[in-house]
Amino acid sequence: MSLPLSSQAGPAQAVPTRIMIVDDSAVIRGMIGRWLAEAGGFEVVATASNGRMAVDAAGRAKPEIILLDIEMPEVDGLAALPMILKAHPASKVIVISTLTQRNAEISLKCLSLGAVDYLAKPESARVAGGATDFKRELIEKLRALGHARSRIARPPVAAPAPLPASAVAPAARPVSAKPQCLLIGSSTGGPRAVERVLLDMKPILPRIPVLIVQHMPAMFTAVFASHLEALLRIPAREAKDGEIVAPGQILVAPGGRHMGVTSSGGKAVIRLNDGPLENFCRPAVDVLFREAAAVFGASALATVLTGMGSDGTQGARHLVAEGATVIVQDEATSIVWGMPGSIAKAGLAHEVLPLEAIGPSLKSIFSGLTK
To answer: What residues bear 4-aspartylphosphate in this entry (predicted)?
Structure first.
């Protein structure tokens, strides 16, 4: 294990976020350390080359965020994760793995064990010159998690002022039409949140179609869909271009492709495309929401769960303009209150609910039990 590498805090963050890097490659550890020093706002408090060393370092260095490689000698990332969280429960773990189906499956398993996010490490990331996208995404995730950490940890000096009336929509606005389709958008922390919502809705899932945009790379989305199918006992898969949106199935936008819907022969049909990134994302929640608004109108019901950025806000505008209902996760239960917070602050949310209340609320709406 190496001793701490440090970097100066950036102007927007007075106290640097404490990072631990766990990777068996000294090249990767050094490269990420240099990136964080250049970016500012981070302090690398420890590094480790295998899971066993990481467990020891976590309890001693008390990092706020841990970057955990999956493939390591002695003790790999999957085996080390529960021990790391036991040694230092307050840390947030981002799992890093190369793009293989096996690693995608392990990464999702790590999320179920307590990791908050994942990051795909392409093989080219082992060569510093080929890691531009990996670097950008890594810094964005660390900044988002660091901001959430500083917001939660900072002691209030006075009671916070309430948001203006225009910033958050009134709770429980009436639903204008019986919904016909559930749309879900999520990003950082999303897989576990999606699972929770759908498990709470399980009795009615055979009666409704569910369309999901979860920010994930290719290969991960297929594994995520298979995981949902095994968990819920409901057909779930990556969406295919041209297939009909039908009740009793869960369709996940494929990584690297936008998923929208169009109308054909009086039926809603999936439309996949390789268009430009929106909000730096493909798939983007905005694409699904925008096209669903045109097809389903007021009969769409959308929820936006934890995630960084603002993807989904513009699409929510289209949905609300058509009379559709949008429900978002609250700040307290979100890993990152970026996407749901953006919609709430724009006054587009019918309700802002804790994660555990979203599934029951959606279930009630679909069952026609709300006003």
So the answer is: 69
